[in-house]
Every structure is written in C-alpha cells, then in structure tokens.
## 1
Amino acid sequence: MRALLVTIAAAGAFAAAAGSAAADGLPVGGIEIGPSGVSRPGDDTRYVALRAGPNTLVARIEQTGGRVLRSRVLPGRFTVPAVALDGSAAGLAADGRTLVLIRPRTGFPRKQTVLAVVETPRLRLRETVVLAGDFSFDALSPDGSLLYLVQYVNRRDPTRYVVRGYDLQRRRLLAEPVVDPEVFGDVMRGYPMTRAVSPDARWAYTLYDGGGDGHPFVHALDTATRTAACIDVAALAGRAELTDVRLALAAGGGEVRVVAGGETVAVIDAATLRVREPAEREAVPVPDGSPPWNLVAAAALAALLVALAAGRVFFLRRRRRPALS
C-alpha cells in the first residue's frame, strides 16, 4: 500500500524526466519507456507499465483524455521494451491481443532474462518466459505467436549479438538463429539506433551503428517468415554521430527512407531491399517519437489510483475475514 502511494507521488517525476535508473532490457542504461507505453498505429489505446513496489501495474488507457480502460497488477518488475536507443517502443502484437513485457536489467551481462506475456483483453498474465542468458526484446510476429529476441553472446561486448526466435505456442526457444543468408557468420555487431515498422507490422527495420566499424546497416526482419537481411547504408559510412538519424516509411510502406538531420540520405526499396540515392526534393516527414509525457502523467496517476482503490478493498476483505478457531 505504501509503495503504491509513493509511486503515485512519483508519477509527475516520470512525466518530467525522459529517463530513469531502470533499464528496459537493452544493454545500456537510462532508457525507461514503461510510463510512456506502447500502442498500435491508428489505435486510440496505449499500454503502460508502472512500478508498484516489487510488482508492476499494467494499464490500458485512452490516448485522448487518459481514461483508464483496464488495469492489473502483475507479480514482479516488468516494463515495456524499447528496441532502439531513440526510445522506440515495442511489445504489442499487430492483432492487439498479445503484449510482451521484459524485466528491467540492472547490469550487463545478466545470467537470466525474464519476460511476461500478457493477454490484452483482460490484461491476464498468460506466461512467464524465463531464459538462461542475456536477451533483449526485438519484435513480435503480427499474430503474436512468435517472439524475436536479441541474444548477447559476448560478456564483454554488448554490441555482439544474434537474433533468436521463441515459439510462444510451443513455449520453446528455437535452436537456429535468424540470419541473413548472404552474410558470413551468425554474429552481428552494433547498437540499435532507431526503428521503423511496416504498416502491416510484418517487417521491423532497425538501424544499427555497426559497432564502431564505420559501417551502419539496417536489419530488416520479416517477423512472419523468420528471415532477415542486413542492408549496408553507405550514405552513413564514417558518420560519427547517428543520434539524429531516423527511419521513415514512404510510398505506403513501399520505401524505407534514411533521414539524417532532416534530410533523406538513402532510400531502401521494401520489396527488393536494395538501396538507392534519393532524388532531389525527395522528402518525407519523420513522426515525432517523443513520449506524450503530459498524457502519461495523468494516465499514470489515474491508473495508480484505480490500483490503490482495489488494494484497499482487498485489504478490508482480509481484515473482515473471521479468524479460524
């Protein structure tokens, strides 16, 4: 009870700061998007995950107005996963029925990774996935049946990784990593900088910095067929700073444009995955990815009040239960 009250008082602090001490699963600290949450394109609902003492309050809220539609307290600490250093959020399947949360990391590497699979209609915990080793969340297939994870394979270098699939129906980690057949070796390298997703949520495009070797690339993951391609972006080669680079979809999802400093520097054909130079005046607006902190603050406070009220009812019921003779 006291922990919930403390979290209510901290809701404004969540809204005022873009980062926190908690980490979202990526091998770097300072990224916490649980309060800002995740949503589907064109949907007026958003899912948020907030700390409730040793547990997690997950809530579905209206993006316009912040009304709490449903909330539930899950045992243990979980958060909405980020998939890139710019705070790109993920974890919600395209069909809207599955939400995957990840236990925040406290360091690198970690011996165990824990994820919570939540059924969104009632926010019921369907499964807790416990994996030996260090993983972060990467993507979900459109129907929510296949989970993709980034597995970190070097204890001293968080830029070396492989992509693994986890079958949520059979509850098992698939043995073979998801690799580009044209790239030699299974292990890739780099930090994820930004993410874009195709309109049908089948393709996840992630820009990696190349791990300091000066060769940024876009990892194009087909979440429906468990295949991937690594696309070199020569226009970014040797660029010292990639924090202002974004991926933007154009032509109804037929193109992925690499935008640096507000200017398109490369265009990827979504059908062939080939790169070309942009034509003159070839521009596309890049959506503002900043979290709606004012909405989050109101929604966080409202959701926590709902949980607090439920906690009081539970507490009173326990107090009224007659003692056993």
## 2
Amino acid sequence: MTVGEVIRVWGTAQVQSLARQWDLGFRKSHPRVRVESRLTGSDVGAAGLYTGFADLAVLGRECTAFERKAFEWIFRYPPAQIQIMTGSLDRGGQAPALIASVHRDNPLVQLTLVQLDAIFGHERLSGAPESIRTWGDLGLTGEWAEKSIHLYADDAESGTGRFFRHTVLGDSARMNWEHFTEFKGLDARHRILAALAADPAGLAVTGGSTEFVPQVKALALARDAGHGAVAASRESLICGSYPLTRAVYAYFNRPPDAPLDARLKAFLRYLLSEEAQRDVVESNDYLPLSSESRRQQLQKLA
C-alpha cells in the first residue's frame, strides 16, 4: 500500500498545517517513514484513494455515493473509514457545524431535525406527519401565525448542502424550492445571514457562528421530540450531542481478508493519539475527538 518509506496523504487543503505536525510527530516513533501530503481538496483526495495514488484520503466530509461506488468498482469492496477530528464550531472551511437561525424578533427558540425536514423538504422521510410552511405550523401565534417561512441556506449541491440533505432530509432532493433561496460561493454564509437579518420571517441554516450578526439568533436543536434540544457549543460538538456536528474522516484501502498495512495502521493510531489530538486543539481550526470517540475509532483499527 505505501511506497517505500512514504505514506501518501491526499485530501482537504484545510489540514495543511496539521499535516506538517503529523509528519513531525509520527517520525519520533517511526524515523524512517515520511508523510507526503498532497492537500488540494476532498474531491481530489477521494480520487487519489480509489486510483491508488494515495494511501490515505483525509476528507472534511463523508465520501459521496459516487466516490464510494468508484472505489468499489475498482476494488470490489468499500473503503474503510475512521473519524480523526470533530468539525469546528465557527471556522468557515473547517467543517463547521450547521446552525439553524431566525431573526432576533422571532420568538422561536428551538427546532427538531424532524421539523427541519418538514420545513425544507417535501418527502418528510424523518416521519413528520405534515409539511411545515408557516410559522403557525410551528406553534407561533398572533401576527406570526399566517406568515410563510422564508428559507435561506447553502447551495444544495455544495459540501454543506449535501451534509444537510443527508442528515436532515434523508438524501432527498425534493426540497421546498418555492420558499428556498440558496447561496453559492465562499461568502455564502455571510450572504445567508445578511438575508436573514433583513427578513423577520426567515429561517436560515448554514455553517458556523451567528454571533457577528446581532439581528440573528441561533436555535437549539434536537434530533426529534424525544430528545432535548442542545445549543451548538464547543462541548456539545466534541461529545456529539449537537445533532448537526460535522467531522473530518480518514479513508483508506483495507481489503476484507488481509491485514492493514503496518505503517499505515501505526499512522492512523497516531492520529488518534493524545499527542495528535493536542495538535488539533492548538491549531484552533478543528475540534478534537472525545475520549469515547477515540476509543471507538481505535476499535475499527483492531
């Protein structure tokens, strides 16, 4: 799998500085092994893995159905995966958690993912009994009751949009387009929140903090009515209690009837070590894994 004394890591450009730390840290225990990084994007990283040019693909998202099928078409089994970091709370580009927000004048304080599915979608795969199209459908009264909910979010085919559709809509593409405005580009989050700030009837979902826009407030989220709503915070993301937490994954080639390459296994274990997770904390870009998450990921490498 590895070439000579090199482990080839391809993937998201946002881990450039961490990759340098990984190389230095891993060499302390494996001085003859060099980590060679080509970090130009998650899409390129996934392609590098299924074409055999990379030993490890570090993605700021889960691999797509196309990427999984491409790997399976070549190797006849799926790629292996572990989670190596938690996505950020408020750093754009570093897999930030998705935050549902309303205008500060809106009395709503929380939602469930089932409700979000009924608001943004048509199929209601989460089990909502009816579509939600007005603020009255969410229990608001008085002047709010008849107001339509105006939706603002990232492009549905962006990485953020695909994560939202997968997690909330069950991968449905039948969205509430008549009330939905989507935004593309690197500045999408800022434009989404600016649109919400100017629209009291709006509901926005996008990655990262809303603190820099005083006219907007974030909502606590619950998976469904049987779970308590949780606000997005560093702690709730790390422990996994916030429902729209994102993650950074490492994908690799592990044949089902063969042992994992010893050097690659040692490197993956290093990424889950306390030393590597401290580097994550010090980078201030991503968040570390919880102790329980690290234990679960290490079990996958057994």
## 3
Amino acid sequence: MAEGPGSSAEPTAPIPPLPTLIDAGAPLMEPGEPATADFAYGVFQRGLYLTSLAVATPLAEQGDRAAQTLLGVLHETGLGIAQDKKKAAEWYELAANAGDVAATYRLGQMYLIGDGVTADKKKAADLFEKAAAAGNPGAMYNLAILYQEGEGRPYNEAEANRLLQKAAELEDVEAQYALGLQFLEGNETVRDPIKGANWLGRAARRGHLSAQVYYGILRFQGRGVEPDEKEAADWFERAAIAGNPVGMNRLARIYAFGRGRDVDPVEATAWHYVARAIGLSDLELDGYVGSLDKETVDKAMKRAEELSSSLIPKQQDPAAASP
C-alpha cells in the first residue's frame, strides 16, 4: 500500500511538469511537415496537453473545426490551460456551426445544465437533435430524456422510445438502462416487461450498477424474465462490491432470509452496516439486526470493516438505483 504524507517511507520521485512543445520529445513532426488536428489529438491522447494546446490553437484560429473542438475540451477540462467553461463553449460553438458533431453534442450538454452558458433546454434539445441526426448516441439519449420530461421538447413518450432504441442499439449503456426502465415503467403505449428486462440485462452485463440492481430484482421476482433467486443474488453482489448501497441492502436481505444464498446473519448484518455507513438504511434490516445476539453483531462489525476496505470505488451515483 502506498505510504501517505508524513510517513517514514522513502520519498517518491516528484511528479514531472507537463512537457511543452519544445521539450516534449517524441512524437515530433518531421521538419517542414505541417501541423494537423490529427497530430494535436494524438499528443492530447498521450497526455501532452501543452503540446496539444500549442498545435491546436493556430489551427483553430484558422477555422479548423476539429482543432476548435479540441480547444473546447482543453478549456472545459483545464488540461494544459486554466479551466474556462465560457471559452470552452465559445470554441464548441464555432466548431458546431462548422458541422463538428462532437462539439455540437458537448455544447448541448453545456446548455442542458448551464455550464459555461445560461441553461437553455430548448437550445440543448436543438443541438442534441443535430448531433443525433449525425449518429451520435449520447445526443440521442439526451434528446430522448428531454422528450420524456417534456422540457426543451413537448412530452412524447413514443419519440423518446424511438431515440432510446437507436442509442441502445449503438451500445450506449445509459440509453440501454433508460430504455429498460421505460419498457417497465412507461405508459401503456410502450410498456413491455420482457423487452425491459432484456435491455436492463444488457446494461447490467456492461457494468451499469443501477441496472445490475434492478435486473437482480427482476430475476428475483420473475418479472419479464424467468425467476432465479441465485442469479439475482449474484447481481446484487456485483453491485454491492462495486459500492452500490442499494445492492448492499438487497444482498443483506438475501443472506438474512436465505433466498438465493444460505442464511448468514453475519454477512447480512455486515453488508447492511456498510450500506448504512454510506447513507442508505433499511428499516426491515434495522429490525433484523436488532434481533441478533451481541456475538453475531460483533463479528458482523469486523466483517463490515473488511468489506469497506475492499470495495471497488463507485463508478456512478448509487442513488439512481432505488426501485
């Protein structure tokens, strides 16, 4: 384990500064070779942000839309330059007006949440529509959500469903999850539990934590899919190990009541304690833990400490999964 600040271990080497265009070394262009946006993106992907900035800036000023998009990324993220969301939006807008799909999508996201620009969901929807028409799955997903919410576009469940299906088929995992939810919980015109379970299963297999929890529930209940309590427990466990507190409490119930796993009050209590420490309690499990003897609770507390230290860092907001 790496030593923290102030430890007695040997000091680690200082982190070198980001290389500049002059001292970056390979990759370098051949003498006389013109700078290109592809080269700027190549060095950006290698982490040479200052080099990328130096190459992209004159190209962007000359109207190269790919370079303009890259400058938007650099200003938005603060890589190689001071973070400036307003300037990022300005570069994205120039590139979007020139037809760059990635810039159009990113600018739409900025208008969606008011990041660097004044929030405007209608303008966000317009931009997402342009990017979606060009095949961007993220734009399809975001536009679908606006149709579902009736913001920036009139409420239209059928159009949302069409867009979500296109994005899901292009392997956008958020669209797969949202489509699964829509088939399960949407209005009667789109509801289809079998399709819902199928899309949630696809998202779950790709590591979407909320989908793993919800798909586990479907497996447990046999809703839209054959019931299988053991497989349900497996999905809850995957989500729990990845840091999802809903999955933790679901797994705790599995161990508490012996459904899909053998009864194990220590594991049940330990997982519930970890979920509660993260901020999600469960009244039924609270009552279950209160009925246990002190020796079991003590063992569970030690087990909870072990579990907490071994959890995979969360990859998404666990609060999104609370069916």
## 4
Amino acid sequence: MTLHRRDFVKLGSATALLSALGLRATAAKAPTIGLIFPPLNYPLPPDATRLFPSGVNFVSNGLGFNGMTIDSYNEAIPRALPRAKELADQGADLISVFGSSITFFKGAAFNKELTDQVTALTGKPATTQSNGLVDGLKHVNAKRVAVATAYTDVVTERLKVFLTEHGFDVVATKGLGYERIPEGAATQEILLKLGAESYKSAGKADALVMSCGGLRTLDLIVPLEKTIGVPVVSSTPHGLWHCARMLKVASKIDGFGMVMSA
C-alpha cells in the first residue's frame, strides 16, 4: 500500500495511519517500580500514589527486621537479593531497596555494592532510598547540610559518614533516638520542631535532610521549608522521586517542596 502526503493529512492521526496500514495501536506500558521495605508486611506508602497518581506502577515486598539497629540491619540485609528477584519476576523495571538506614549503615561503598548485586541478579537497574537523599541534595546544589532523623545517635552518625563520603559537609545532626518509632511519637509538630532545631544548630546550611522511611514527611516538606528557608530532602518522598527520575518519568512536581519543583 502506497500513501501520499495528502493521505497522511487526510488520516490526521498516528492511530488512523496505523489502522490504514493494518496495524493496531497499543498504549505504552507504564513502568513499574519495585520497592523493598525493611518491615515484612509494609503497605505501599500513600506518598507513591499522591506523587505519581498515573504514569508509573508499584510492586513491593519486605525484608522483615527487628528495629533500627546495626545488628538488625546486618541480620536482615541478606534477604534483599531474594526479594529483588521476586520483584523482577513480578515485572519491576527498576528495584529500590527502601529504608534509608538499612542501606547507608555500612557506608557509600556498601550501598553501591548492594545495588550492583541487585542489578547483576535481576538484570534491572537498581537504587536505594539513601541514593534518593543524595540525588535530592545534588539536585539543589547543596553542600553544607543539617540532618534530622528518627534514629539513635549511633545510626545518625552512620548517616553523617555516608553523606560525608558523598562530598557533603554535615554541619549538624539531631535524632529522636528511636530503634522503633512508638505510635504518636513522630507527629508533624514534633518533626517540624526537630527539623527546625537541627537547621538552627547548623548556623547556616544549604539544605536539611530528614531521614527515616518510617516518618510521614510528605506534607511536612513545604511548612518546614517555609520555616527554615532552604530545601528539605526526605527519605520516602525523595526516594520515590529519585526512582521516577531514573526511569525518565516526569518528576517535576509542584506542591511538595523546592527539590521536586526545581
């Protein structure tokens, strides 16, 4: 079948053209992000569908761990590779190990080794929630950072080391001191105060990191940025945003802070 220019104009659309050629138009499949959470039966955070109501799908599973301690991380992390294989088998196009502390606790080299192992096993690109923190800070050209966490001093110090290894100057840290977050112990008011105090103790910082995937921070980002005047990068929101960026999904999102809208 020969089509002339006037025929293209007459057909008027790609779908009509494909029909004329005897082909069927098919919608592009939305990419799927696979998320591995530290808790065993952890529900998909509402942040995922609020940030990406369309254009990306999610599948998830969990490691099962006994709290935010070094011993617990060491016990749980060997299950990451089998869980990654499960997600790949379910159709994940990218796999991220969520739970910031369970991926930064042994430093930058371990974090990279973990993602390399996931990719080698599954053939899929891989990342971590910790990489989302780094990506967010780099996206706004932050150098000096303040840190606020849910963790004990021991785990918070591991985050300081990890960020320092990535070239950031961590000028202040403040944690809530939890191995497990008690119900009602991390309200928006408490987290706003925590973030503001960490930033204030820094003297001057380019950004604030709010770390722990168990903290509900999506609606905290804008109020906290208005209070301190610099970008806020937080584990779950920016971990999801980072995954979308890796998959080339539109990730400029207004209404959730300076990083995503930049």
